[in-house]
Design brief:
globular, 335 residues, 77% helix, 15 helices, mainly alpha
């Protein structure tokens, strides 16, 4: 397991390096010059004030979403549970967009965005909890109710445009998910939030392992199932809200990264939870590097300097394809 964790850490470092050199504005060779202490003022600004915080935010958001997804899947005993299909992500988006539209939050007040996103995420999770039942329901039932809750919350988000049409750019940004324009302020807000709630999730590794075995087994072991599940859902909502407030709704990261982590590291959540954080960081960091590279290469052919591919669009497309593969290979999989 230590070797596999080390390999994931190496992959994260490689994705970070690729993300630093993939963007526009400076040649890859200039990146290494700046890292070595050289480069002009413009190159240093692009790398140190734009690319590095963007890199850190993408890695941190990916780790948050992956850990949140693994916590949800374990607490609900549902391999289809994830922030994207349990109402947490669309609820967090609705909270952030509504607060922005009402003038209560914005990029100049990121803490207010996190609070609003957390409140929205809790609302989305509560709606699913009421519809699917306290036990979380079977995978198909939870997925259906999750789609229903997500559709309702998405409709409410669209209605925000009727109240504040000037916020269209913010709505699209949060709905798709992007790391474009992230600066140090976003990172300084994200990392303590992610560290605190990620640590809380890791401390729940034992109860989550019992929950994966079933409520009867957990009760026989002396676990307070209701309290443990509530704490786990709170951690998942908080981690998702922090990620959404930083980068918007990155599709399928929180749903599929836990499957990859479990496949690589096994079911021991003391190891798999940190591993899921690395997997999420690798997925989002790699996708962001690919998105920047794709946005950079077609520019001469299209005669455009404004082509930007949001990383959320790439993770959604790749995640949907991978989800079809997972479901097709294991249609009856349960915990």
């Amino acid at each position: 397991m230590s070797r596999r964790l080390a390999l994931l850490a190496v992959l994260a470092v490689l994705c970070a390096g690729a993300e630093l050199v993939a963007g526009r504005g400076m040649a890859p060779g200039a990146v290494w010059d700046v890292l070595a202490g050289g480069g002009d003022a413009t190159e240093r600004h692009i790398l140190l004030q734009l690319r590095v915080p963007r890199l850190l935010v993408s890695l941190g958001a990916g780790a948050c979403l992956a850990v949140a997804g693994l916590v949800l899947q374990s607490a609900l005993r549902n391999p289809l549970a994830g922030p994207e299909v349990t109402g947490v992500t669309p609820g967090a988006v609705l909270g952030a967009v509504t607060a922005t539209g009402l003038g209560l939050a914005g990029w100049d007040s990121p803490l207010a965005v996190v609070v609003a996103a957390c409140a929205g995420g809790c609302t989305g999770a509560a709606l699913l909890w009421l519809l699917a039942g306290r036990g979380g329901g079977d995978p198909a039932s939870t997925a259906v109710h999750g789609v229903l809750v997500s559709a309702v919350l998405g409709g409410l988000t669209a209605m925000v445009l009727l109240v504040a049409p000037g916020e269209l750019g913010s709505v699209v940004q949060w709905l798709i998910g992007t790391t474009e324009g992230r600066v140090w302020q976003h990172w300084h807000l994200l990392w303590p939030w992610a560290l605190a709630w990620g640590t809380a999730a890791w401390l729940l590794a034992g109860p989550l392992t019992l929950l994966r075995c079933g409520d009867d087994t957990a009760l026989a072991a002396g676990l307070s199932v209701r309290r443990a599940r509530t704490l786990a859902l709170l951690c998942a909502v908080a981690l998702t809200a922090g990620a959404v407030a930083a980068v918007g709704a990155l599709g399928f990261v929180g749903l599929l990264a836990p499957h990859l982590a479990v496949a690589v590291l096994g079911a021991d959540l003391r190891v798999t939870l940190p591993g899921a954080a690395l997997v999420g960081a690798v997925v989002v960091g790699g996708a962001d590097a690919a998105a920047q590279l794709f946005s950079r290469l077609p520019v001469p052919a299209l005669d455009s300097g404004r082509l930007v591919l949001p990383v959320g669009a790439l993770t959604a497309c790749l995640g949907a394809a991978l989800l079809l593969v997972v479901v097709g290979r294991a249609p009856d999989r349960t915990f």
